Amino acid sequence: MSENLIYADLNMTEPTRPRLQKVTDVQGSTYAEVKVQSLDTNAPASYTSSGKSCSPRTRVAVFVAVIILLLVLAVCRILMCCPTASSPADSKAFSNNSKAALGCPRNWEKHGEKCYFFSQIQEIKDWNASRKECTDMNSDLVVIDTKDELVYLMFQSENYYYFLGLTYSESEKKWKWINNMEHSTDMFNIEGDFTDYFCTVIGHEKVETAPCDGSSTTQNMCEKAANLLEEQKEN
């Protein structure tokens, strides 16, 4: 009968191709429609856990982020444990230790980074002979570079006169050191006669002119740089 129509709609999954089947009961007016959905094996898989999905691409991104974070932490730890540059305090301490380790030969006096030899022999020598005595000991006549060195030499020469590596150049009309540097009056003033005394001596708390051919009151003084090898020889 027309008022007793019954419809049935079923969805089923089948690994084969889709199929549509329709059965008609003309006498009972009953229709049955079956829809079969095909299974696509190439479709991307999805994972469901607690109502949330996590794709493979998301998991890879999280894994890469964790690896990068671990690398950054490792680099920071290395930099903290093994610094590439010394601090100013460490550099100063190293410099002070290096200076303290510098040594001088026997019978030489150390001051700062220099070694000084003060002759005890009272023998008349001219300026050139005095300089040769220094060069024979791998040194030279003294060149005063700093105020500190000047004060030290004033103290050491309070009872004697010693030749300096400072002479007067008649051609240039200047007082010049043996290293070719011009004398500066900011360091000290030269006292004495400037007419025919073209060499200088330090002694009795002053620097003054002196005859270059020497005198009985003038002794020899040499200087050279202190070094680590001399310290090792002493030990």
Automatic annotation (TrEMBL):
Task: Tell me which UniProt keywords the record has, alphabetically.
Answer: Disulfide bond, Lectin, Membrane, Signal-anchor, Transmembrane, Transmembrane helix
InterPro entries assigned to the protein according to its UniProt record, in alphabetical order: C-type_lectin-like, C-type_lectin-like/link_sf, CTDL_fold, KLR_subfamily_B, NKR-like_CTLD
Q: Does Iron count among this protein's keywords? A: no
Asked if the keyword Cytoplasm belongs to this entry, the reply reads no
Cellular component, GO annotation? cell surface; plasma membrane
Which residues are listed as membrane-spanning? Answer: 60-80
Query: Where does this one sit in the cell?
Result: Membrane
BP GO annotations: regulation of natural killer cell mediated cytotoxicity
Pfam families recorded: Lectin_C
State the Gene Ontology terms under molecular function: carbohydrate binding; signaling receptor activity
Q: Which CDD domains match?
A: CLECT_NK_receptors_like
Q: What is its main location?
A: membrane
SUPFAM superfamilies, alphabetized: C-type lectin-like (SSF56436)
Q: What is this protein called?
A: KRBBB protein
- Organism expressing this protein natively: Chroicocephalus maculipennis
Q: Lineage from the top down?
A: Eukaryota, Metazoa, Chordata, Craniata, Vertebrata
